[in-house]
Every structure is written in structure tokens, then in C-alpha cells.
Amino acid sequence: MTDTTDPHLILIDGSGYIFRAFHALPPMTRPDGTPVNAVFGFAQILERFLSQNVSTHIAVIFDTARTTFRNDIYPEYKAHRPEPPEELVPQFALIREATEAFGVCRVELPGYEADDLIAAYAKAFEAQGGRVTIVSSDKDLMQLIRERVIMLDPIKQKPIREPEVLEKFGVAPNKVAEVQALAGDATDNVPGVPGIGVKTAATLLAEYGDLETLLARAGEIKQPKRRELLQTHAEMARISLRLVTLDENAPLPCPIEDLRAKAPEPARLGAFLAENNFRSLAARLGLGDGGAPQRARPVESTATPEPSAAAFGPYDCVTELGALERWVALARDAGVIALDTETDSLDALAARLVGVCLAVAPGRACYIPLRHAGADMLTETPPQIPFEDAMAALRPLLEDPGVLKVLHNAKYDLEVLAQPQNGGLAVTPVDDTMLISCALEAGAHGHGMDELSQLHLGHKPISFDEVTGTGKARISFAHVPLDRATAYAAEDADVTLRLWHHLRPRLRPERALALYEQVERRMINVLAGMEQAGVKVDGAELARIGQDFAERLVVLEAECHRLAGRAFNVGSPKQLGEILFDEMGLKGGKKGKTGAYSTDAAVLEDLAAQGAELPRVVLEWRQLAKLKSTYVEGLAAQIAPDGRVHTDYAMAVTSTGRLSSTEPNLQNIPIRTEEGMRIRRAFVAEPGHVLMSADYSQIELRLLAHLAEVPTLREAFAKGEDIHSRTAAEIFHLDPGSVDKEARRRAKTINFGIIYGMSAFGLGARLGIPAGEARGIIDAYFAQYPGIRAEMERLKEEARMNGYVLSPFGRRLWIQNIKAKDAMLRAGAERQAINAPFQGGAAEIIKRAMVRVPMALREAGLKSRMLLQVHDELVLEVPEAEVEAAGAILRRVMEGVAELRVPLLVEVGHGTSWAEAH
């Protein structure tokens, strides 16, 4: 047994383990139908912890009922917390059985929270001369930390002592409860003092010493608002302190002696595992089907390496069917595996599968070559399992709903495996480490696997270029020698699994779990379906548009030559700059490092605003030339044999969560120009169908009205008024009936400019007026709508304080350079902080709709399907007979996905082409 000269008590916060296990694993049931995924996950976590940590005493502490003595103090305490998921409820009792089966004492007491019991046991054990480790990441428990009482983060396996508490709260552990009493806690419905955050609370306590002294001397505080809040809410702060202070004198349901660590009874543990069908865990513990053990594991056994400590390789190259079958068995036992594919193309719909990678544990991965060839005509084909045989062995595993498959950028791999030439597999269920990272830290950094590996694991993976070469020397992955292919490919699966272990447990404590599970993860299959469906493009119409654009370009080019007084290459910035600034003598020319004048769009727009004709015509020529090359010639080249184009949606590129599309990029086609509408006419419906467009109306302005206290804006949206006309009337002091098109246009520019944090200079350029006049308009706008200015200042302060802002639905949107010393970088970050919640909120709303629309169409028995998502618009292909029903479903679902303080409005149209649908 362990050394009793150093008594050590480990107290495990059971609730943290339960919910971590429940949300980490897909649904599982035992033979009688009882759900057991949380039980299995809890048992795995507990077994792993016991094998890696040694102590003389140990207990798992559980909560009992939702109501405790704190509800007598404040009835609203935790009253808003949702009920646990229905499929988790029957697992609570089994989890308690699991604790006892592993030989660990379980502790609970009606009327008290687990945190109180942890506090009481820590005090009692410390009084006996022992030391205590509390296994939890719950910030409420940080008030207990002292010399002989520490916390251990169960996810990061890192100790939490006084320095970590100081970093989080700005005070020592013995002042944490007072900080929480002032700041409140929305999670537990602890009221606190409105307007007082953690940082301010720490500052006040440092100045006044303790909460009671602060409240008694609140009248001395110089800031009027803060003084008033503390005086008004003093009693609520005292109540809050009683709510957050843990009861160190709570009864001890089990005597300390009963908490002594001991090895589990093999028969009892084996029977429990057998009853719940946990065969893989029983096999790992040497308990077979619940009989006599083949090997017993004492509590104080040697610790196994942390996942991050396992070596990256060497990995197995699986070239025989028997070996593959053994790996499949290992994967089934693991329950959670990482999966990756190697292909001969980045086009998921056309790629041929070259190999598959599996990882069953950190450092334990394999590569299964499937279609490798020799390096050249003289090199023999390397040994590998015949493709059909290998896929037959893999199919049951990859389609097994009881084994969670973890991928990075899962959409690509799922589309590859779904293609008939690659086996036509329907892989399920899946987790995606790229999307988990994006849900946690959108905007903080990129979410590519290599970048995340270096960031979180401290490991630089082998790059694709290292194994395939670059440029003209690059070879197909099918020709990479198997040893190099294995080292590269299996490492990817290994890294993915390690990232999952590192990132997945953070979702719940960082409040990103709902976003990931309800939106981001569900979007994988939604987007994969849209990409595979594609949209029909009329090649003949594209050709006619291309011819027309070519003729217009010739005319515009001739006009440029006439205005310049000589022929020149309109597409040459160098020649254009010499004509504009040297020959024509226009003001504002600036040369770059190459010695050539800058002639970018901003320069030409400024010159055009000053009345120069040539820059205006060049701008028109450039736009038309770009449309011709990108959307006429580019689209024509991307029409697949099925007559459709299949865009690729990137899910983790933007900092706000918006989707972006590539090959072709359908999000940059001009919306309100005749040329843009011409291109949209080439997107057509199949015979007997129409294209239906459903577009959120002014969604970002509605989010602004939702977030900012602007009663008149909310009233206008509630009444369905023209918001731009209403704005024009109010800021220009016009009678509502006298607002003309120009006033409305200016108001519209201002409304949208404010959301993007536009400066007076920028607004002046948009409206064609001096910056001083634009500043006057902005001042008038904020005078009319002071709530908007207050919201903008709040967002900038939130970004400065936290490094991120929150979307209206709680997503963290990280803002780079918000504390930059460079004023221009900092100003740009502040504009981003202002705009991010609106773009991020709009992105989440339309994603929510995209998740729900296909389901609603199926439930209605309709064959309509989504094809495209462009900004705030969805485009569907709808049988003519379903137009009315599909339109009604779109409005109902899209307008009902979020409850804002103003109504969401969706405009629906349809036609034989995308242009007609608007």
C-alpha cells in the first residue's frame, strides 16, 4: 500500500467527470436499452486517473438534489439551469455504482452541494496533518486553495495553486468569494452588483481590504455610477457572499477512515463491467468477461505516460488483411479513434482514395496503403491489401455508430469516402478538431492541423511538401514510398487524436459546447450534401455573356486610350500611373518600393471623386475584366460532367464564423450591378424545377437593434418600416413623407457604415463629401441614437479587457492587435471588434437555419434541396409543385431560429434562374 507517513487525500468533483464523459462520447446503450455512454466515459476517466495518481485516501464527491440550503437564502439560485439531458438521468445511479466498483468511496449529502462537502473534507483532513488535492477546474473551489490544499485541472492535468488564482481573480484564494460576491456569476444565478466585473472587484478589495469595509465606505468612492451601484445593491452583495462561500463545517457523511485508498475487488468490478457490456475496458484491465482477473491493477500502480508524452511514431504500415483486422479490433475496443485519408487530389468529389490512417491512442497509429504505385514504370507496385478487401474490412468500423471517428476538416474526408470510386461509405459519428478549435478560438489563430499541433502539442508534423516535393518536382501521394507515406500519414491521425484529447474537454467549461454540437458539427453533413448537389450552370448563356463582356471591354479600352491621348496597356498599373501622374499631372501620386505609382482601387476612386474621367473608366474596365476572367471563363472551366458547378465551402477560415466558398467563389459576384445579375442568369434550375432564394433582410442592422438600446430602431423594425427612411428622417430632421432617394441612400450608407466602424474619412469618401461634413453626420447619428455609441464603446472595451468579443449567442470572437502600439493597427482592431458581433451573429443565425431547413423539408415530405449559401441568402432547387410549401417552410424556419428583440424577416423569391429568384 501507499506510504501512510504522508497522508494524502484526493477529492474528485464527480459532476465534472460526468458531463465531460457524457458529451465526449456518442450515444451508447447496453443490451437492455439503458443509455451508458456517460457511464462508460466516467469509468474510463476514473480508471485512467487511478492508474496515474497515488494517494492514501480518495473519494468522488457528487451533488444530490438541485435544491440546497442556498435556495432558502436566495430562491433564484441556480433556478435557470436547464434539466439534465433525458438520456443522462438514468446513468447517474450507474455512475455511482461504477465509483464503488472501482473501490472508491462515493460521498453525497442531501441539502449540500458537492463543493461544500469538498470544503469540509479538505478542512478536516488538513487538521489531521494531511495534504489535499481537489480534482476539478471549478473556479468556485479556488477559494479553498492554501499551502496544503491544491487543485488539479482534470483536463490539462496541471496543478492550480495561489499564482494561478491570482492570475484568474487578481486576489489571493481567501478573497475569491468576495470577488465573486461583487462580480456575481451568471452560471449559478448569483446576482452580485451590476456593473462590477472581476477586475473591478479585485481593485476595490485591494483598496478597502474586505467586502464589508467596502460596502460601509461605499460613499467615499469617486465614480458616481459605481458609488450608486454599490450603495443600492449592498444587501445583494452580502447575500451573494453567503451563496458563494463554501461551508467548511458541513457534515462528513463518510468517516475519513472509510476514504482510504484500496484496490478494487476483481469480481465486483468485473461483474459491473460485464453487466454494462464494457468488454473493451474489462479486457484492458485483464478481467475478461467479469471472471477472475488475469492481472490485477492496484491503485498505486506506476503512472502511465500522459497522452502528450507518448512518442510520435514509429507507426505501423498495414499491408496484410490479418493485420488490418487486428487494427479494426483495436479501434472497436478504443471506442474513439482518429481517421484520416490520403488522396490524389484536393477535389473531394473527384479524388481517388490512396490510403487510410487510423489512430487508436496517442502514439499508436497506422497507415493502410490502398492504391500506391511504384515511383516510375520500372518500380514494382508496393505490397498492399486489395482495395475491395480492405474497404470490406474497414466499412463495419467506419459506419459503426458506437465508435466515434475524430477527423480534422471532416467534410473533406467524408466526401472522399462517400464517392462510389472510394467505397461509398457513410462514416458516422464524427468529431472535427478543426471545428472544435474554431468554436473555441475563432480569430485567435489559424485552425490548420499543423498550426494547432505546434500551438497545443509543441510538435511540428512532417509537411506534405517534405514527402511529395514542390512545384514541378511534386509527385502524387500514390507514388510516395510506403515508409515515408506511413511516417507522414499516420502522424496526421496521431496528431488529430491528441488534439481531440486536448481541445474537446474545453468546450463545456468555455461555453462553446452548444455552438459546436448544435451548429458547427451538424454543418458538416449539410455542407457536404450541398457541395455534392452543386448548381446547374447554362454554359451557352455563359458564352453569350463572355462575348458581350469582351465587346464592352474593347469599347472601354478605346475610351481609356482616348482619354489618355494615346494607346497603352490598360491592365498595366505601371503604364497607367505614368499617364495619370506624369503625363496628365493629376495630384496624389505616390510611388512604392518598385518606383511605380500606386494605382489601386482606392487611389482611382479618390481621383474619380475629384472629377477625373480616366480613373472612372479604368475602374469600370477592371471590374468587367475581373468578372469575365473569374465568373465567365472561370465558371465555364469548372462545370462538371453533370452540368453543374460544385463550390467548396470553407468552415474555419473567417474570424467571425462566416462560411467562405472557393472554386468557384460565389460570394463575390456583385449583387446590385447589371453585370452581376447577368452572371446570376447563368445559374439555372433543372427542368421542372425553380431556384428559390431566401434572404435575411437587413440582418446585421436587426442585430444592432437587438444589442444596442435604441428604442426607435426597435420600433421601426417591429412595425416593418423602411429603416433607412426612418433613419434619414431622424438624423436629417426631415418629415417622414419628404425623405427622397438621395437622403435614404445616405442614411443607408451611414447605417451600414456604423456597423463596420467606418471613420469620418471613410464615410466622406462613400458619400462624396468632405471628412468634416461626414464627422458632423456621424455626430448627429450618435446624438439621435446614443445607445449605438454606448454599444460600440462597450464592444471595444470588451475586446481590450478579454482579447475577444462575444457574438449575440455567446461565441468568442478573438480580436488581433486590439492592444497594438501601432495606432493604425489598433484602430483597425477596434473596428473589427465593433463589427465582429454583427457578422458573427448573422453567420450563426444562417447556420442555424441551414441545419434546420433540410430536416424540415424532409419531415414535410418535400424533395426540395439546398444548393448554395451566399452571405445571408440560401438558394434551393425546388420542384415546381413544391414552390408554395417550400417557401412557407423557409420563412417559418429561418425567421424562427433565433429570438431577438426585433423580428427576423426573410424575403423569398423564385424563378428559373438565380437572377429571377431575386
Automatic annotation (TrEMBL):
For the region Disordered, what residue ranges are annotated? 289-308
Catalytic activity, as annotated: DNA(n) + a 2'-deoxyribonucleoside 5'-triphosphate = DNA(n+1) + diphosphate
Outline the extent of the 5'-3' exonuclease domain. 6-262
Residue ranges that the Swiss-Prot or TrEMBL entry lists as coiled coil: none
- The EC number on file is 2.7.7.7
Q: Which keywords does this chain's UniProt record carry?
A: DNA damage, DNA repair, DNA replication, DNA-binding, DNA-directed DNA polymerase, Exonuclease, Hydrolase, Nuclease, Nucleotidyltransferase, Transferase
A GO molecular-function descriptor: DNA-directed DNA polymerase activity
The segment(s) forming the DNA-directed DNA polymerase family A palm domain are 676-882
Annotated 3'-5' exonuclease domain ranges read: 315-508
Task: Provide the function of this protein.
Answer: In addition to polymerase activity, this DNA polymerase exhibits 3'-5' and 5'-3' exonuclease activity.
Tell me how this protein assembles: Single-chain monomer with multiple functions.
The family line of this record is: Belongs to the DNA polymerase type-A family.
Record protein name field: DNA polymerase I
Native species:
Sediminicoccus rosea
Please spell out the taxonomic lineage of the organism that makes this protein: Bacteria, Pseudomonadati, Pseudomonadota, Alphaproteobacteria, Acetobacterales
